[in-house]
Amino acid sequence: MRARCIIQCRTAMVELGPHSKSFPLGAQPGALADIAQRGWNMLANDLAFPLAVLKRSALMHNLRWMQDFAQRKGVHLAPHGKTSMSPELFAMQLAAGAWGLSFATVFQLGVGVAAGVRRAIIANQVLGAADLAGLQHLLRQHADLRVWFLVDSIAQLRLIEAWADTQAECQPFDVLLEMGIPGQRTGCRTLDEALALAQALAASKSVRLGGVECYEGHAAVCDPELDPVAVSALVRRVLEVARACDTRDGFAPGEIIVSAGGSAVFDLVLPLLQAQGLSQPVCGVLRSGCYLTHDHEHYRHYLRLVEQREGLSDSLLPALEVWTLVQSVPEPGLALLSCGKRDISYDIALPTVQWHANAQVRSLQDAQASPPSWHISALNDQHAFMRFDPAGPVPVVGDRVALGLSHPCTTFDKWRWMPVIEDDGAISGAIHTCF
Prior knowledge:
Layout: H1 2-11, E1 15-16, E2 30-31, E3 51-55, H2 56-73, E4 76-77, H3 87-95, E5 101-103, H4 106-114, E6 119-125, H5 129-141, E7 146-151, H6 154-165, E8 173-179, H7 191-203, E9 207-214, H8 226-247, E10 256-260, H9 270-273, E11 282-286, H10 298-310, E12 320-331, E13 334-337, E14 352-357, E15 368-369, E16 375-379, E17 384-387, E18 400-404, H11 409-412, E19 417-421, E20 427-432
C-alpha cells in the first residue's frame, strides 16, 4: 500500500493525452496518477496496442526479494536507475529500503534527485565541464546529497582539476577508483596503474577517494563453470587494490565503499562487497538494475545459475511485457504483429511469445500460454514477424499476443509511460519515464 501511495504522489503532475503512445485519442486527457479511476482493463480494448505493461504483483515480489537478498548478505542495494528512468519506480525502490540509487550520467542523476534520491553512485566517468558544473550545482542545491562517480585515469583527474581551478568556489567531488577488464570497457587494467591513480587522487584537492568499484557483467558468459572463475578473478583484483590503497592511507576518512554491478551474477561479487580487514568500515554496494522487472530470456538464464549456486527455488519474476495485435496472417506459418523495434528491446535477443488471447477474452487470467512453435523471427520498425506451425494452433487476425523480452533497459526507453496492471489485467496505476 505504501508503494502504491508513493506512485500516486510522483505521478500527480504528469499528464496523459494524445501525445502519449497507446493512450486512446478519444479519451479525456488527465493525470497519470488518476488512471486507475478510469476503470480500464488491458484486454477490454480500452487502450491501443502495442502496449507495454508492468505487472504489479511481480513488481512487488521482485522489490521484496532483492531487498531481502541484500539484507541477508549484509550488503546495500543501490539499484541502477538507468534501467527504468522512472521516478515512480525510484520511489518504490527507496521505500523498499534501497541505500540509494545508481545512474550513468549527471542528467540521469538530476532526474533521481528531483524524485527524492539523496545518495547516489554515478557508475561512469564524469569529466566534461558541463557535467562537472551540473553535478556541482546539484550538490549546492541539496546539502544532504552525496554522490560518488568513477575515475579510471590520471588524464580524467587532470580534467577535473583544470575545471575546478576555474571556479571561484568548488567543493571536492567524491569518487571511486574503477577497476576494469582487459578488452572490455572502462577501468584501470593493472594494480600498478590503479595505485598510481590512487596516489594522485589522494593528493588532489579536487576529489576525495571514497572506495573502489567494478562492473563484472563482461566477465560472465552464462556458463556455470566459467563464470565463477572469471568473476572471482576480478573480485580478487579489486580487493587487492582496495587493500593496497588502504595500506597507503589513500581513502578519505569514513566508510570505504566497495561496489559492483549485479543484474546477472550478483551472488558472485559478494566476496568483494563483504570485504574484511580494512582499516575503516566497509560499505558494500550492489548496483543491480534489471531485477525490478527481470526479463523472460537473457537475465532469466543467468538467474537459473544463481538459483543453483545459492540453493534457491523462488526468485525473480518477469514483470514487463509488451502486448500486441495479430494484424495480418498473409501466408501459412507467418503472422505479422503490431509491435516492432520502436516498442520492444532487440539488442540482446529477439522477443519471445508468452501469451495469447482471442478478441473475446476480457481478463488476463483467461489468457493462454502460447504454443511452443510460435516464435519471433525478425523485427521491423513497426512489425514483428511471428512464425508458427500451420498444422498446430493458428493465430487469428485480432488476437492479442504478449511478448516477453531480454534486457528491460532498452524496452523502457521506448515508452514515456506504462500502465501498471493487476493479475486480471485491470489498470491500477502507471509510471512515466524520463529518457
